[in-house]
Structures are given as C-alpha cells and as structure tokens.
Specification:
Length: about 725
C-alpha cells in the first residue's frame, strides 16, 4: 500500500465468539503502537523527493529504502522526545531536532499527512514523559533491603498504575488534538456560511469535508485510547478483587493447616524413627522386560496413614520421596567470540563442527530429549479422557509444551557419544520412567522410551539435521514421536518443527520455532493441525504464536487451539463454522469458527529463582545431571567433560571433551576394520559399521512403516541386579 500505516489490533473475548483465521483490517494509529508506512523524503536538488519506508516505534522515527532493509540497514533515526514537528502545507511537514537532523517529508494526501502528524505527536508526548520520568528516577535512592521487599510486593501494582497514568496522558494529548482540529473545522464552517453560491462553493465544501475527515481520524484515536484504558482498568479491577478474596481464604486455610501439622508432628516423628527404607529393588514399581508396569504395593506405606493413625505399628516400612537439587553452580563469565569459530563452518552440519564447551550447557542431547516430559501431567489428564477429541487437545498441548523450555536456552547441549544413555526414573514422584540411548553417531540419532503407570507410553527416535547459514543456525529434527494410551488403545504420532538460532554473527542470540505439526490418532482418524508462526517484524500477531484445529476423520472441526509455545495453550469448542470473506496467503477462503469460551489446557511453570545465572534451566532441568547411584556406566551423569563444565572448570572440560571424542573415533575405526574384514569382497572400498545399540533394536515401525529403533527391554532388570557387565566403556 502507498502511504498507509498499520498497528497491532485490540483483541476482544466474547461468549460465544468468532475465531476468524484471517488478518484484521488496517486501522488508524493509536497510542503506544508501532506505526509504519511510505513517505516521500527530500534528498537533494538533483533527486528531489524519494520514496522511503518509515517506522515509528518507541519514540523513534526511522527510515529505510525498502521494507526488506528493516532487518539489516537503517538509513537514519530521529528521537521525537526533543524534536519539533512543523506542518508546511496540505501534504508536507518537517521534523527537526534542532541540530543536524532535519527530515522534509511529504505524504500522498492531506488525510495521510494528518495520520502521520497524529501518530508523531502522540509518540512525541509519550517519549517526553518517559524521558522526564527517567531523569526523575535517577534522583531516587532506597536501601537494597527495602527495595527488594517493596519491589516484590508492589511491583505489579506500580507497573499497572504507571500504565494507567500513561493512558490518561494519551487521552489528554488526544483531547488537545481534537480541540485543535475542532477549531479548524469550526473556522471552515464559518467561512462556508459567508460564501455566496458560485465558484468558491465547491472548493470550500471540499475543505470542510477534509477537515471533517481529519477530525474523525483524531476522534477515533482518542476512542481507541479510551477503550484501552477502560479494558485495562476493568481487567485489573476484577483480578485484584479475586486476588484479595483468595488471599483471605488462603490465610484461613493456612492457619487451620498449621494447627493440624502441629498435632501430627509428634506422631510422624515416632513413626519415622522406627521406619526403615525399602531397598531400591522394592522402592519403585517393577517394570518387566518390555516396559509393562507392575505395581508392588504390598510393602508400601502411605505417609498420610501414619500421620492419621498414631497407633500404626513401628514395623511398617516407608519410602520417603527423594529431595532433588534446586541449584547448580552459576555459569562463569568467560568471553569467547562465536563468529571466530563458526565463520569457517558455513554450510556444514552442526554435529560435525568442533565446538568448545564455552558454547554448551552442562546437559547432553539425551537429557534435553528427556525434558520433553517436563509437562507429563498433560498425558496423565489425556489418559483419563473419555472423548478421543478431548484427548487430542491435551496431546496437542503436550507437543507444544515441549518447546517452552527452549525460549532462553541458547546454549548447545553436548553431543552424546555413541552408546551413551540417560535414565530418568520418576516413578515414585510422577509415575513414569524413561530411557534414552544414542543409537547412531553419523547421522546423530537418539532413541527414547518412556512409560507411565498412569496408562501411557511415549517413544521416539530423533535424528538432527542442522545447517549453519552465517547469520542463523537451523536445526531440523527428523523422525516420529509416538504416544499410546493403554485404556483406549489410541495411538498418536507427530513430528517436531524447525528450531532456528538467530544473531550468530552479532547481537543477542535468540531462538524461534516455526513450521507445522500434524498430530494423528491412527485408531480413530482424528487429527490436529498445528501452526507455529515464525517471528516476523512485520507481523501484527503476538510473538511465538501457535494455532490449531482438531478435526474428526470426516474433517469436521470440533476444537480450536490457540496460544504461544513459550507461555500457554487454550482450546475452545467449535459450535459452528463457515467460510469467511477474506482469502489467506494461499488464495483459499479462511474459515470462521463460532466457539464457546476458551479453556486453558497448559501454562508454563515459572523458572526457578536465579535461572538466568544457571543457563535458564527449569526446575526439572536442574535435576537431570544430579549424580545418582545405580545408573548405568554409560549414563550422561557420568560423563566427565560435562561434569567439569557444570562445576565451572571449563579448561579441564575442553581437554576432557577432546580426549573422549578421540577415543570414540579410535573405537569406530577399529569397529569398521573388523566389519570390513568380514564383508563381501565385492564391496571393496565400502565402509561397514556393525554397531548395534545396547537397549534398542532397529525395526520397521508397524504404524508409520518407517525404520526406527524400539526399546527391546532389559535395562531396568539390569539396574535392579546391578549387572552392567555388557555395557561398553565409552567414558
């Protein structure tokens, strides 16, 4: 479009509401929104006015030769906080900071010029307020203790008050603009009254029409500001009332609980004083060679029964839940230029780039894969669903939740050594246990099998294809993920989307997830199509947006899913659907869904305190590399270079990493020589590798017909017996 601007629209929720899979109309500028569009800028007397793309954001007006330049080349920026805005005629205006920067600009029409003037004056007023507040805040001083206590308690209230105050200031600015344009409109009307019918009539009528249009534009801006202010005030008013009532009720409950705990304390002390801990072979439900869970409850003692029954015999046995660690050593502040290493690796696969541990995080790829189970409760809930379509919603939310741990995790996990394993035994706390094994080195591939006593099994084999393109790194996971529910026999499959790491050369690293996922229930034919929208500077959608539609085998929509992969997912039941009037990017009409009120499926758990100093690890991630007795000698927890890195001894970790990689290469060459000696002479020159994984075997998947590695069993029995004689020496 020529000369037009656009901003992010307001979002409304109604019941029932229409969910339209299409872009909103282009509105007028409003306070606090980015405003963009084409203007003509005076360059020199030879070239005159040249068409440029202008962006107004955060009190700064920047311009580019084209929209494509926005990602890399800004031609100039002026700060509106100290700038003067002058209107010259119907289409021309000047912006100057009183110094070396002066922009002579021309819009395509007077209406378009006034849209820009309105947006610029609003941005200038806000930028001036922010600068004044910043100057005032520099004179304030509080003690650290007082600041910490008050900040934690009042930060949300103060932030909301500042936002409300900003909205009031926006209303005041809009009011001044309306008064200004209203006076101009009144003058034009007065002049029209004194005009005799003749040649001047049409010109005066045109002026009145344009003045009325400008007045309408400014009035609409004020209406938008009022709507923002009222919506914010109403939303927070209700939430504060609910929060206050909840705090009162919680205080009463806590007082009652403390009284009960005080009475039970002596009983618990006596009970635990005589309790003995079960051996590891009895402390968890047993799992047979194929991963079927067998609950051994005959020696099991519930702690609550001890607390409520002080006469319980002292001979009963209890298994206390293990306390997991909640911190790891802070990440050292070692500087190293990533570009100095990566510049010679453009076009190569990530797994073939020798990287120092400085760019790693102290977890292996097997442990990162196990983090897919961070929100296992979604599968627990799905297992209880009677409806396969409702179950699909929870499975889809689970697929999205696995990406939430990646939003700040720019560190590269350790590449697992061939034969490396990682077990995650959480039967006692969460009802599941999982095992990962690195089954191939080139290409790198890991097999994963998890089973829960609550009725579900998760298995996957993920191979990573990665390419470094100079400015960004793309990681494409290959392979299918399977989830099977024991009660209904519903069998779901899906694949992962592409992960992109941006700003490799310069700037702050950031991660994006993009692509599409089809979650399929092979028993019923139900399907959920999820779209992960890639980040775009030009998009008016929220960042990291995910949308989806759940359909049955006939293609009829039953649920609409929406949210972001780093925060939450919601679902809404579809009551009616119809074709919309607008076409999508593919030229097809988009569908409008009439839905009931949204229901929250999943919300991300906040990161632990100090996570920014601990590689942004979640609560689960902090426990993954915690030393644990009884695990296999090939377990990632026993990897020495990874352990040294976690302890902050990076130089020693780099040396140990090189030793392990050279050892792996030596073993591989010897294995290939043995395989070649027994190979067919007709295949001379072909390299053979007869490596076979320890706990997984290669099969043709009965559901997808793809070759994959499936758990063969035996790991948990070997752990129970403490028999690791057949494990390779990889560390």
């Amino acid at each position: 479009m020529s000369g037009g601007g656009f901003r992010e629209p307001l979002s409304d929720t109604v019941k029932p509401r229409a969910v339209v899979m299409s872009e909103p109309k282009v509105p007028i500028p409003a306070p606090e929104d980015t405003y963009k569009g084409w203007l003509f800028k005076w360059t020199n007397y030879i070239k005159g006015y040249q068409r440029r793309w202008f962006v107004l954001s955060n009190g700064l007006l920047s311009y580019y030769r084209s929209q494509a330049e926005m990602g890399h080349t800004c031609r100039g920026t002026i700060n509106l906080a100290t700038a003067n805005i002058t209107v010259e005629d119907s289409c021309n205006f000047v912006i100057s900071n009183g110094g070396t920067q002066t922009y002579h600009l021309k819009a395509s029409s007077e209406v378009e010029r006034q849209r820009w003037i309105t947006a610029l004056e609003l941005a200038k007023a806000k930028a001036s307020r922010m600068q004044a507040e910043s100057d005032d805040s520099g004179d304030d001083s509080t003690s650290p203790a007082a600041s910490q206590g008050a900040g934690s308690r009042n930060s949300e209230v103060q932030s909301t008050l500042r936002t409300l105050n900003s909205k009031v200031e926006d209303l005041s600015t809009c009011n001044d603009l309306i008064a200004k344009h209203g006076s101009a409109l009144q003058r034009s009307l007065s002049e029209l009254e004194g005009v005799r019918l003749g040649g001047e009539t049409s010109e005066k009528i045109r002026q009145v029409t344009e003045r009325a249009t400008l007045f309408r534009i400014t009035s609409n801006a004020m209406i938008n500001a009022c709507r923002d202010f009222l919506a914010l005030a109403q939303a927070h008013s209700k939430r504060w009332q609910k929060a206050l009532q909840a705090e009162r009720e919680q205080r009463v409950r806590l007082e009652e609980t403390l009284e009960q705990l005080a009475k039970q304390h002596n009983h618990l002390e006596r009970a635990f004083r005589g309790a003995t801990v079960l051996p590891s072979s009895q402390s968890n439900p047993a799992i047979d060679s194929k991963g079927k869970v067998r609950l051994a409850q005959k020696d099991w003692l519930d702690e609550q029964s001890l607390a409520s029954n002080p006469e319980s015999p002292q001979s009963q046995e209890v298994v206390p839940v293990r306390k997991r660690r909640s911190r790891i050593p802070d990440k050292p502040n070692y500087s190293l230029n990533l570009w100095s290493i990566m510049k010679n690796c453009i076009g190569k696969e990530l797994s073939k780039i020798p990287m120092p541990v400085n760019f790693n995080e102290p977890l292996s790829m097997l442990q990162r894969l196990s983090e897919d189970l961070e929100y296992y409760e979604l599968l627990d809930r799905a297992a209880k669903c009677q409806s396969s379509l409702e179950q699909m919603c929870y499975v889809a939310a689970f697929t999205v939740s696995s990406y939430s741990t990646t939003v700040h995790r720019t560190g590269k996990p350790f590449n697992p050594l061939l034969g490396e394993t990682f077990e995650l035994d959480r039967v006692q706390e969460s009802g599941y246990r999982s095992l990962c094994e690195q089954v191939s080195h080139h290409p790198p591939a890991a097999a994963h099998h998890a089973i829960s006593e609550r009725g579900w099994t998760l298995r996957q084999e993920i191979a990573l294809a990665s390419k470094f393109r100079g400015k960004y790194l793309s990681i494409m996971p290959l392979g299918s993920i399977h989830c099977i529910f024991e009660k209904s026999n519903n069998h779901y499959t899906w694949k992962k989307v592409t992960t992109t790491v941006h700003n490799i050369i310069v700037g702050k690293l950031w991660i994006d997830q993009s692509g599409e996922i089809d979650v399929v229930n092979h028993r019923t034919g139900d399907r959920c199509h999820l779209k992960f929208a890639p980040y775009s500077y030009f998009s008016r959608d929220v960042a990291r947006k995910v949308t989806g539609v759940v359909t049955d085998k006939d293609g009829k929509a039953h649920y609409v899913l929406s949210g972001t992969w780093d925060e939450k997912m919601e679902c809404s039941r579809v009551m009616q659907s119809s074709r919309g009037g607008e076409n999508g990017a593919d030229g097809r009409q988009k569908t409008v869904y009439q839905t009931l009120k949204a229901k929250e499926l999943w919300r991300k758990t906040p990161l632990p305190e100090g996570a920014e100093n601990m590689y942004y690890f979640s609560t689960l991630a902090l426990t993954l590399n915690e030393p644990e007795e009884g695990v296999a000698p090939t377990d990632s927890r026993r990897r020495p270079d990874q352990r040294l890195m976690e302890q902050g001894r990076w130089e020693e970790a780099n040396a140990e990493k090189q030793r392990l990689e050279e050892k792996q290469r030596t073993v591989r060459r010897e294995r290939e020589r043995e395989a070649n000696r027994s190979a067919n002479p007709a295949e001379e020159g072909v390299h053979h590798d007869n490596y076979k994984p320890m706990w997984f075997e290669r099969q043709v998947d009965p559901m997808t017909r793809e070759p994959t590695h499936i758990y063969r069993g035996g790991y948990w029995e070997a752990k129970e017996q403490g028999n690791w004689d057949s494990c390779p020496d990889i560390f």
